[in-house]
Task: structure prediction
Amino acid sequence: MDVVCCLQQVKSGSIFDNVLVTDDEKYAEDVGEKTWGASKDGEKKMKEDHDEEERKQREEEDKKRKEGQYIFSANFSIPFPR
Result:
């Protein structure tokens, strides 16, 4: 039996779940349709909504910059002596 495995992380933070290892191609297709096939449309919609929200935020930030408003965002920590 040949074993082929390929996991590719396209974007930082990608999470892999529902991993199936089998040598039965028909079984793998059936399980895939029952699991991923049932959720892929909902996941696609969630991604589209998320991308749209990010686009709106970028547009709002661009608008504020053009109007001369200064936007400052920082994420840092300051160590305090004990």
